[in-house]
Amino acid sequence: MLPHGYSEAHLGTRAGRRRGPLRLLVRNLRIARFLRAVRSTRLVCLVKCLSMTTSEQPAGFWSYVHADNEAEHGRILRLCNLIEAEYSLITGNEIHMFVDRDDISWGARWRDTIDDALAATTFFIPIVTARYIQRPECRHELIQFSKHAERRGVKELLLPILYSGVPRLEEDAEDEVKAIISSTQYENWTTLRLEEEQSAQYRSAVNKLALRLAEIAEMIADRPEVLDPVPAENTNVDEFADVSPGILDSMAEIEVLFPSWTKTIETLSSDIEALSEPFNRYAPKMQTVGRSASASVKLALARKLAGELNPIADRIVETSTIYTEQALQMDNGISKILLSIAEDPSSTNDDRDFAAFATGIRSLRDSGAQAIASLQRMNEEVKRVASMSRDLRKPLGKIARALQRFMDGQGLFDEWVRRIEEIENAEVAPRRIN
């Protein structure tokens, strides 16, 4: 069911396309077909077999920006090596850190970890700097791992190291990545990084970090694995009698959430379009006074513009927060469905059902990429204009942070497509063998 006044046909109309770049996210996705495909997917009840046991040695993803390591003359990677060595010294066990996200071993371990295919303890250790916060790939990894750790009830596995100062690193920060980092018990190395690597202070800090990793690993090893709750028995779902616990909930959740999520995108699109009216009205005035008026006149105009932008900026921030929450809920449901299909590809009634599902997700990913290209240009323009006036800086700063939240969501779409491609490749392989 779509929101009132919003039809599937409307997504592809010329009028729909005029609503701005955010409309691209939903324009190409046939929502009704998507929901039919989800409803018709019959998933066999299987108990997930863990590919590794809890006795597996702990490991970690050492997530950093290469430019930061170069600026530190290799100290960030050397710190990783020191922690590995100290951990081995104090526990007698090894801990392997994956340090190159382009390496095959990183990719394989990352997929197993995020797909919940591992029972082993795997840390995510981001080396947080101002540059790290700005990198899209770093943001996507941190958000994704945080969601995974929260789902499994192992939040402690996210262990940030604050390597250099980051402004407004607070739990109520409007930037999602900053909020996630500040909600953890991160290690503060902003002063320690200036110490000599052989100094007592530095070695003591390395020891403290290794001890903390060992304590967390031991604590989580003794903690029972979090399983999906079993839904209440319902005698009216014979059509899905073979569906595994929790999957029906995922299907129902997506069916309810998708129209709401689409409506949120519509609202966000309208809010962003509302920005054009005051900008278009004030632009000629600013150009006129720019040639002859004094600085005080220019600032007065900027102040009036800021006053009109503030309520719009507040609406955009509120809507982007709702969008992020809904996107994460969607991800939870879709990830469960894809994981179940991956375990048993024959669980779909018809290959066409999955093909329609995959087409819809790819359209969403591709349209999102187009929208983000437009939003990135807009974000840069917003930052440029904000630098012109302190009064404009506040509303435009809110808008820039809200747009960043939206762009962070693209990582979810990319991950859905990755899982779909793995399912498709697994289906093709046996045919080639035969």
UniProtKB/TrEMBL annotation:
GO biological process entries: signal transduction
Superkingdom: Bacteria
Entries under SMART domains matching the protein: TIR
InterPro entries tied to this protein: TIR_dom, Toll_tir_struct_dom_sf
One Pfam family assigned to this protein is: TIR_2
Tell me which residues make up the TIR domain: 57-212
Q: What is this protein called?
A: TIR domain
Q: Give the originating organism.
A: Rhodococcus coprophilus
